[in-house]
Amino acid sequence: MKKLNTFLNTLMGSFFGVFIGNLIANYINYRQFNEIYDMTNSAPWYYRAVPSLILFIAVVIICMVIKLIIRNKTKN
Fold this sequence. Notes:
Helix content: over 70%
Radius of gyration: 18 Å
Strand content: under 5%
Number of strands: 0
Number of helices: 3
Structural class: mainly alpha
Largest sheet: none
Order of helices and strands: HHH
Number of domains: 1
Mean pLDDT: 87
């Protein structure tokens, strides 16, 4: 059970890193090519990070549900 818990924590941390990396990359891209964003996008620069945020939240919820199920089964 400890290995599974470590794996789930690593998975959540990895997806958090992907989300933060995507956010930073989008911001840097926006700062370098500001004119292109103004011409083509009506949405703000951080709008491109929304899919990464949704994926991160989904992974965290799934991992937390698995952790709760395992905790309840080990207590019984």
